[in-house]
Amino acid sequence: DIKISGAPKPEHTGHHTRMLTHMHVANQYLYSLR
User: Fold this and answer.
1) How does pLDDT run across 4-17, given as a tens digit for each residue?
2) What is each CA distance from 9 to 17, 24, 25, in whole angstroms?
3) Could you give the 3-state DSSP secondary structure of residue 31?
């Protein structure tokens, strides 16, 4: 977790979570094609 000034930025952590979720879904999709 990246914390700025001792506290995480909600918009940044939210974007990071969405990005990880998107990558996870994409990986599952690619894996299902094998």
Assistant:
1) 566 666 666 677 78
2) 12, 22, 24
3) helix
